[in-house]
Amino acid sequence: MGKLYLKTYQWVLRAVVELLDLFPPRRIDKNEFALRKGTLPEDFKAPDEGTIWVHGASLGEVITLRPFLKELASIYGRQRLVCTATTMDGLRQLQKDEICGFATLLPIELPAFTVPFIERVRPRVMLISETEIWPLLLDTLARKGVPYGIINGRINEKSVRMMRLAWPIFESAVSGMAFAFPQEKQYQRRFKILGVKEERQQQLGCFKYDIAESMPDTVALRRQYGIDDNRRLICFGSTHPGEEGLILDALDPLWDKLDATVIIAPRHVKRVHEVEELLRARNIEFIKVSEGASSSARVILVDTMGELRNFYAISSLVFVGGSLIKRGGHNLMEPAAYARPTLTGPHTFNFRYEMMALNRARAVKTVKDSEELRQALTLWLQQPAEFSEMGARARQVLESMAGACHRTVSSLQQLGYLPHV
Fold first, then answer.
1. What is the rounded distance in angstroms from the CA atom of residue 231 to the CA atom of residue 233?
2. What is the pLDDT of residues 148-171, one digit of tens each?
3. What number of other Cβ atoms are within 10 A of residue 106's Cβ?
4. Distance from the first to the final alpha carbon of the chain
5. How far is residue 82's CA from residue 53's CA, in Å, rounded to a whole number?
6. CA of 83: how far to CAs of 59, 175, 265, in Å?
7. Burial group, residue 266, by CB count within 10 angstroms (0-12, 13-18, 19+)
8. Which 8-state DSSP code applies to residue 37?
9. Judging by beta carbons within 10 Å of its beta carbon (0-12, 13-18, 19+), is residue 292 exposed, middle or buried?
10. Measured CA distances, 156 to 161, 264, 294 (Å)
11. Tens digit of pLDDT for each residue in 378-416?
12. CB 363: neighbour CB atoms within 10 A?
């Protein structure tokens, strides 16, 4: 019965693709559509020993995969790594990082596209970051004898419910999973509910804690962005609709005594125009990064992709967004990697484990609204040394939680899915 449902899904997907062929959306150009059909360059040739296929859905997953990809590249060589992303932003980041030998978009999971792709890429194993479970693709991999599994695994309850409701479609993909490495116990429990056998799971931690890295050349970064060497910066990163207004409310009484430049980096670049309108409505002078940022303006508005960590590295204080509104927060360990004192709102339910660890170490400060944010900013102006100590403690917390990438590679080697070198 499951095969019948999977075949029906395949027919529906084929009909959708054929409609897109006839009436292509304007937002998808021909090159992108070709990549989504599994098209590879004519001169592409997989190494004789096969490749290691690593997949990350979007920009966030691709960035989190960096330390893992670096470790794989250091062991097996970058030419053996084939990396795919679901989104164009993710692909652009893979191409920019140049860690893997070849990067492209994940093909649409019709066998007509995936079979030729797999035959040319010749993967030894497919490693899927976090939760992406594509039933037709994974069924095709199983038919081709290619093992696959989840690394850095996480899954929410909504996804579990959805896949259980459509179980006849997902059953083959889940039951054929060779391994799953969830980040923590709650995800391990959810994978078990989904149907992944307990003996195939290992709780190995989270890749995002492996981002502790040496401090970049902050002088060069400041010069790149046109920011004076001694100018203090406050970075509001990954902000969402409704948050920028609260942030500006907190800053309104402080502008005259605020000896610092404010950086605002919306989570989604497409919202930059919306933030521009907010700043103009309040007569706040700003300049966009794409126009040549300068600390002479009160606000630097980040309208470019993939640069948030650079701004975290050169900032004196960081606020991580998605937390003053009920979004669940964003990665608090990114500023911790640079020992930056960090503020967050109360809504961090996507990062409960990190918040517990940071709170235990007094390494983060939570503000519930614009008034408490204003008070925290005022306190930072008065006691910067105490906030610097908080940032140092955050870095220590991050270092204590690291190691998931190495554990994952070791487990894959022990299970025989990656060779010992």
1. 6
2. 999 999 999 999 999 999 999 999
3. 26
4. 43
5. 5
6. 13, 24, 27
7. buried
8. T
9. exposed
10. 9, 29, 41
11. 999 999 999 999 999 999 999 999 999 999 999 999 999
12. 23
Q: Give the model confidence (pLDDT) of 73-100 as tens digits.
A: 999 999 999 999 999 999 999 999 999 9
DSSP 195-261: T--GGGB-----GGGGG--PPP-HHHHHHHHT--TT--EEEEEEE-TTHHHHHHHHHGGGGGG--SE
pTM, entire model: 0.82
CB 289 within 8 A of CB 275: no
> Under the phi-then-psi rule, with left for phi > 0, alpha for psi from -120 to 50, and beta for the rest, what region is 250?
alpha
The answer for residues whose C-beta is within 8 angstroms of residue 352's C-beta and 6 or more apart is none
Cα(179)–Cα(81) distance, integer angstroms: 19
DSSP codes of every residue in 279-330: HHHTT--EEEGGGT--TTSSEEE--SSS-HHHHHHH-SEEEE-STTTTT---
Of 280, 276, 306, 278, the C-alpha closest to 288 is 276
Of 238, 249, 408, 383, the residue nearest 316 (C-alpha) = 383
- What tokens appear for 21 in the block? 């062929």
273 and 349 Cβ atoms separated by less than 8 Å? no
Q: Identify the residue whose tokens are 């995969």.
A: 65
